[in-house]
Design goal:
Elements: E1 4-10, E2 14-21, H1 38-50, E3 54-59, E4 68-75
Antiparallel strand pairs: 1-2, 2-4, 3-4
Length: 80
């Protein structure tokens, strides 16, 4: 059975959510900006346009256990 690790952090200026699994990794040539997946496109656009954040996806090297790492970071804004 696979594993998923979720890490939440706050740097003072950003909120960061990192999700990592130990699955098969990303398909050859994967580019989050060119994805045709509706769900992933919605998340990417929401993070970028509504939250003014950034999302990245990368394959974890086999030497580190393999799988995929997704990191979403959004800026923290002061509420008035």
């Amino acid at each position: 059975m696979g594993h998923v690790d979720v890490t939440l952090s706050h740097t003072g200026s950003e909120l960061i959510v990192a999700v990592r699994d130990d699955g098969h990794g990303l398909p050859e040539g994967f580019d989050i900006e060119k994805t045709t997946s509706l769900g992933l496109s919605i998340v990417r656009d929401l993070v970028a346009s509504q939250l003014e954040g950034h999302i990245s996806m990368e394959e974890v090297p086999a030497a580190e256990g393999g799988g995929t790492r997704v990191v979403i970071s959004v800026p923290v804004r002061a509420h008035r």
